[in-house]
Fold:
Amino acid sequence: MYQKALSNTGFQTIYIDGFAGSGEVPLTEHKDDLFDEDVRVVLAGSADRALGVEPPFSRYVFIDDRRNCIDALKAKFRGNANAAGASYLIGDANAYIPKICSDEQWRGQRGVVLLDPFGSQVEWATIEAIAATKAIDLWYLFPAGLSVFRQISKDGKVDPTHEPSLTRLFGTEDWKTAFLKPSRQHDLFGGPAGQEKTVTPESAAEFMKGRLKTVFAGGVMEEMIPLGKHAYASYYLLFAWGNPSLKASALAKKLSKAALKATDRKHGRIIGH
Ligand SMILES: C[S@@+](CC[C@H](N)C(=O)[O-])C[C@H]1O[C@@H](n2cnc3c(N)ncnc32)[C@H](O)[C@@H]1O
Structure:
């Protein structure tokens, strides 16, 4: 939908996959008794899907910090005309993406960034750099359940190594007052009162949505799409766009609606090809 809307507008378009993976997502593995063969069931990964878009993006950038993922992508896309000019970058998305955002010329170019990390790898400074271009649409699989909710224990304790990682994720220490409240109970020995955990995966995602609103000049999708196989959402898919023009907002609304419609809630996955 994005590519159709931007074709014939004269804009070059760039797709940047910050956590590109290997091009496929393993689902299950089982033995086929009839043929005595191992059968792997896989879903097409984000990089593969993006390359299949018609009309294709003008350029593709695939980033992953694991060399074997990038090697797998290169092998998979060899001979794919849409990938002919693609860049394959091995390393930290938090280093590459801000550099691309500041080096590229955005006057005649628009972009889409997908951030699909395993955990709390995305630094707030990366989000700020994306927003500052005012030319990029961001789709962020925010690990609200996995990396925020689960890193804070019931009694409000945060592992000392996780504290700075949460601050890097949100770009502020305000998460402490948003997610914890002073406990009314003193400890058994009459010591100072501790803290209570008030955060839920949903409230963590709401907090990130609020943070995105502070930097994206275009807007942020109000709906958050819960994803994951657990009783709680491991991730919420968030969408923000940097271009403040009316046209960009109208397109963003259409994209938001389409994303909500395409969500297969039963499996917690986006339906694809
Ligand atoms: C959830 S997987 C991505 C799946 C992929 N988007 C797909 O649809 O197939 C996350 C990927 O991020 C990579 N990764 C982890 N930390 C990273 C970082 N700081 N920068 C770039 N890639 C990173 C991992 O190697 C892994 O392949």
